[in-house]
Input
Amino acid sequence: MLSKRIIPCLDVKDGRTVKGVNFVDLRDAGDPVELAAQYAQQGADELVFLDITATHERRKTMIEMVKSVARQLNIPFTIGGGITEIADAEALLNAGADKISINSAAVRNPKLIEELAKAFGVQFVVVAVDTKHVDGKNWVHLNGGRLMTELQTETWIKQAEELGAGEILLTSMDHDGTKAGFDCDLLRKVNDSINIPIIASGGAGSMEHFTEVFQKANVDAALAASVFHYGEILIPDLKQELSRHQIPVRI
Amino acid sequence: MDNTTSNNTIGIVNYGAGNIFSLTAALDRQGISYGMVNTEADLEKYSHIIIPGVGHAGAAMQKLRQTGLVDAIKALTKPVLGICVGMQLLSDHSEEGNADLIGIVPIKTKLFDKTLGIKIPHMGWNNVNFTNNPLFTNVKPLAQFYFVHSYFIEYNPIFDIALVTYGNKFSAAIQKNNFFGVQFHPEKSGEAGEQLLKNFYNLTI
Output
């Protein structure tokens, strides 16, 4: 049976992981390679690295980091942030990334999804969508939720699928950071409307939230950052808990 | 097992279908020595051959034909392992691009059936029900491997050495004589995948 995936997300700046990470046995909490290996050891099914570097050196630094991670890591990983053209994606692929995730670049230029899928296969292309509830509807937002677009979330995701997205990473900006649980209603609705895998993101605060999102929204994967980084939820415990609820996981 | 004392070396068929960084990294981590196969003469240099492959099977076959290696690969008697699209290339035909493939194993590669209510691609970790085969030595029963593909190899009991269920049952791994194929990515499948790569490296036929 296909397992539900648990995906820690790491923010990366200038080739270093940021945000407080307090694993006790890390020699260097800012070393993405060491952190990634630790998560793989714990039983993470996949990792997402989100590059928040804003400098011109971004691409070069990122490629070096991706190579180092790929050398060490024996599970798949996705790279997101700053990918705006085929050449960016190709460099990441050649450095060992399994998938790339595009967000605002896809909204600004939807053809990019099509071009990436054609060049590298749909399995390589994750479309990340940040959504916010405004006046009773779900709208796609950019720039970390600060910029509202005229795209309705459900419509945009359908379009992304048609253009060649292989997977959707849906983050609820209303739930993100609240630790009050995932937006199961929206996730369920979107999940029912598409035929590609969907990763739930935003709102994870407890193990129950993961159980809930798999049971209620039947998503393919759940992503979280701080609950894992701060050791509030340990992946082996989480997998046991999910397994107790008959949710198929890799243990 | 200490691989460093082995005289075996894996040749990776370098035909440009997908990136092989992850594969070579996985071999490096296991201390498995390898090199690249670009010409027919290169095939002689190695004890074992891996045919990698990501992307479109029809396009991959076209690239393989351009290398001029197809007949030489067909004639190999040493252990050969096709991974993902590399496995599909061993079959007769793929629905992807309606392409004729190498045809070492007389089976077909088919598109997943959407009407079974499954998502495509089949992406993630799935349990593999393998037979008693040296490729799976020391792998835990029903171990999970990482899959990502939209086309699958039809189940045929003669060649199947591992079954997986997603919508329907299909072959996660096949064997015909010295030719092996795995649909999943051992280089991305944690410890189970690393064990499988070691097993292949240590295969004697």
In short: The two ends of chain A are 13 Å apart (CA to CA).
